[in-house]
């Protein structure tokens, strides 16, 4: 799906799903999966990192944060991921 067809919540969900399948991925790999610009994906990954859903690995890849419950695929919520509203029309 091209950039404009995803909402903030959907992008976060797709990123988390991709990381659940691959264990870790670079911004470029995630951008290819989302058909989005790497900078857009990087911004979403940083928001997910601040929310505690993903972590940055050596070499610049992102991976899911493991939880105590054994689930490694947290669900993003509007409060954590959707707070930042971009004024960039490309987002």
CATH fold-level label: Arc Repressor Mutant, subunit A
Low-confidence stretches: 69-74, 82-89
Number of helical segments with 4 or more residues: 4
Question: Order of strands across the biggest sheet?
Answer: 1-3-2
Q: Can you offer a commentary on this structure?
A:
The protein has a three-stranded antiparallel β-sheet. The chain is mainly α. The protein has a single domain, classed as Orthogonal Bundle (Arc Repressor Mutant, subunit A), CATH 1.10.10.10. The longest helix has 15 residues. Helix 1 crosses helix 3. Helix content is 44%, strand content 9%. This is Transcriptional regulator, DeoR family. Keywords: Transcription, Transcription regulation.
Briefly summarize what is shown.
The protein contains 4 helices and 3 strands, in the order αβααββα. By secondary structure, the protein is mostly helical.
Present the secondary structure layout:
Elements: H1 8-22, E1 24-25, H2 27-34, H3 38-50, E2 54-56, E3 62-64, H4 78-81
Domain HTH deoR-type: 8-63
Protein name: Transcriptional regulator, DeoR family
InterPro entries: DeoR_HTH (IPR001034), Tscrpt_reg_IclR_N (IPR005471), WH-like_DNA-bd_sf (IPR036388), WH_DNA-bd_sf (IPR036390)
Which terms summarize this structure?
91 residues, mainly alpha, globular, three-stranded antiparallel β-sheet, 4 helices, disordered C terminus, 9% strand, Arc Repressor Mutant, subunit A, single chain
């Amino acid at each position: 799906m091209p950039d404009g067809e995803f909402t903030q919540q959907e992008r976060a969900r797709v990123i988390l799903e991709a990381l659940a399948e691959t264990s870790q991925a670079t911004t470029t790999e995630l951008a290819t999966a989302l058909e989005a610009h790497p900078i857009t994906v990087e911004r979403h990954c940083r928001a997910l990192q601040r929310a505690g859903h993903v972590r940055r690995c050596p070499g610049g890849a992102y991976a899911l944060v493991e939880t105590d419950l054994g689930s490694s695929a947290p669900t993003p919520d509007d409060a954590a991921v959707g707070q930042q509203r971009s004024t960039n029309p490309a987002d």
